[in-house]
Amino acid sequence: MTVVTRFAPSPTGFLHIGGGRTALFNWLYARNTGGKFLLRIEDTDRQRSTQAAVDAILDGLQWLGLDWDGDAVSQFERKDRHAEVAHQMLAAGKAYRCYCSPEELEEMRAAQKAAGQPMRYDGRWRDRPESDAPPGVAPVIRLKAPQEGQTVLNDLVQGEVTVQNAQLDDLILLRADGTPTYLLAVVVDDHDMNVTHVIRGDDHLTNTFRQIQIFHAMGWDLPRFGHIPLIHGPDGAKLSKRHGALGVDAYRDMGYLPEAVRNYLLRLGWSHGDDEIISTEQAIEWFNLESIGRSPSRFDFAKLENLNAHYMRLADDTRLVGLIAPRLEADLGRSLTDADRDLLTRAMNGLKQRARTVVDLAQSARFYVAAQPLSYDEKASALLDEKGRGLLKELAEAFAGEPDFTAAALEAQVRAFAEARGEKLGKVAQPLRAALTGSTVSPPIFEVAELLGREATLSRIRDAAGAA
């Protein structure tokens, strides 16, 4: 048997981070087993579905590196097939026409609520003859669900779960206008797409028992189901925007790398011993459904940032320059030159060691390509007092005559310079840092000077030495 999984988002908004995890688990299981990972856009809600949301979902999946097999399927475009199946059940006596008006249904619910009963359709048209149909009323088609016994689901994550069939009413398959309901469309699509494993959030567990009745009515084989616990916030409450329930695109905008987000989402509810850093290749090799926990996981931005910092240090320098370039260009109001990009690439190893996000990285790299004279932050300005400027004037003369403009040679020169004046190294190095970067925090300052080169270094020192 070839494993076939699917991710089936509704295009009514962005790709939620929880949806990203669901897609990841389906993708990993398919890749681990040598199977297929399919994408189905469940766009039957025509009023809320938008092309912009479809594009956001596709973009989010591509950014996460989750490639799907074949073309994405539109559920709406298969509506005729869904209706065909409903009529097959009707002809086989597995479904029936219901002529209840909206007013009757509302009265039914009100009476059940007043009596303290569960609100569900009472089956009043289940066995009535068509001759009783009121004139001019377009019926819905309802499933004739079993009323006795129980349905048992051997869930791949939750274990055995049982529901009494009396709790399940006769769900609507086709609305009065002939359009299929979500519950019918999902079952037909999963069957026709040969889906073998339905891996989704446990908020769908109730839907699963209702969908199983449709599978049984059609005599179709059931896929295996695995319901993943939802993601909660750090306080244990349902994940909301204040916790991080944002679209995948927001995490990209906040400066996270896709490999870090993949790693983090993998560890939200799945484990492999004590391993925290798990590459995509390892994840594909190790992933299984048995290691998904049954309890909700908690979203933790601090852990995500730590993971991202790790992957930042491993990332290719040229790639990182490409990621920070749009941010720098927007900030500077100009395009980066080839010389700028070359400088940033050479400087990247020192920059990325301290950065936690791409946003951090862009901010820390800005001084390399900023126009002169630099702007100095408050702490840097404090270092450029009369004494600091005096030291810098002398240091510029020493640097101008340095034949070996390397980090090691410059450090040795500054040490000798400080010692000759009875100063500690920091008393000279910190004003130098302020002059070259506009800040008191940067990569090692002698490496910075070497990367900037003699001309730019001397120009920046002289700017700072002349600052009022």
Automatic annotation (TrEMBL):
**What is a single Pfam family found in this protein's UniProt entry?**
Anticodon_2
Alphabetically, the GO molecular function entries are: ATP binding; glutamate-tRNA ligase activity; tRNA binding; zinc ion binding
The processes (GO biological process) annotated in the record are: glutamyl-tRNA aminoacylation
Q: Name one GO cellular component term.
A: cytosol
Chief subcellular site?
cytoplasm
Which key words tag this protein in UniProt? Aminoacyl-tRNA synthetase, ATP-binding, Cytoplasm, Ligase, Nucleotide-binding, Protein biosynthesis
What PROSITE patterns does the annotation carry?
AA_TRNA_LIGASE_I
Quickly give the catalysed reaction.
tRNA(Glu) + L-glutamate + ATP = L-glutamyl-tRNA(Glu) + AMP + diphosphate
The residues that the entry says bind ATP are K241
- Identify the InterPro entries for this entry: aa-tRNA-synth_I_cd-bd, aa-tRNA-synth_I_codon-bd_sub2, aa-tRNA-synth_I_CS, aa_tRNA-synth_I_cd-bd_sf, Glu-tRNA-ligase_bac/mito, Glu/Gln-tRNA-synth, Glu/Gln-tRNA-synth_Ib_cat-dom, GluQ/Sye
Question: Which domain of life does this protein belong to?
Answer: Bacteria
Q: What is its EC number?
A: 6.1.1.17
Short motif ('KMSKS' region): ranges: 238-242
Query: Which stretches make up the Aminoacyl-tRNA synthetase class I anticodon-binding domain?
Result: 326-464
Per the Swiss-Prot or TrEMBL annotation, the motif 'HIGH' region is positioned at 9-19
For the keyword ATP-binding, the answer is: yes
Subcellular location per UniProt equals: Cytoplasm
What is the role of this chain? Answer: Catalyzes the attachment of glutamate to tRNA(Glu) in a two-step reaction: glutamate is first activated by ATP to form Glu-AMP and then transferred to the acceptor end of tRNA(Glu).
Which protein family is it in? Answer: Belongs to the class-I aminoacyl-tRNA synthetase family. Glutamate--tRNA ligase type 1 subfamily.
List the PANTHER family. Answer: GLUTAMATE--TRNA LIGASE, GLUTAMATE--TRNA LIGASE, MITOCHONDRIAL-RELATED
Q: State whether it acts alone or in a complex, and with which partners, per the record.
A: Monomer.
Its name, as the record gives it, is Glutamate--tRNA ligase
Which organism does this sequence originate in?
Answer: Azospirillum lipoferum (strain 4B)
Q: Which gene encodes it?
A: gltX1
